[in-house]
Write a structure and sequence with these properties.
single chain
Amino acid sequence: MVLDDDSPGVIDFQDAVIGPITYDLVSLLRDCYIAWPNQQVELWMTQYYERLLQAELIDCNPARFKRWFDLMGLQRHLKAIGIFSRLHLRDGNPTILTTYRAP
């Protein structure tokens, strides 16, 4: 991946397991450390949806795909909140709570 300033970037594929079709897209577009403009997210999501349709990887309407996308975003943020709560409560790291920012 190449960044705007032509420097190399890295996409972390986590555990590289098969998951929900919206997982990777949500990971890129609804991350807790970056906030893309909603109009841009909608455009990228629509383009991704259209490519999935062309590749015959999904068979649903745009509204259903958007719902899947939103629910996956919710699940990922709940997971992050749980992890950060554990780090704070169990591991005694209160500073971790100041690094998370929900979109």
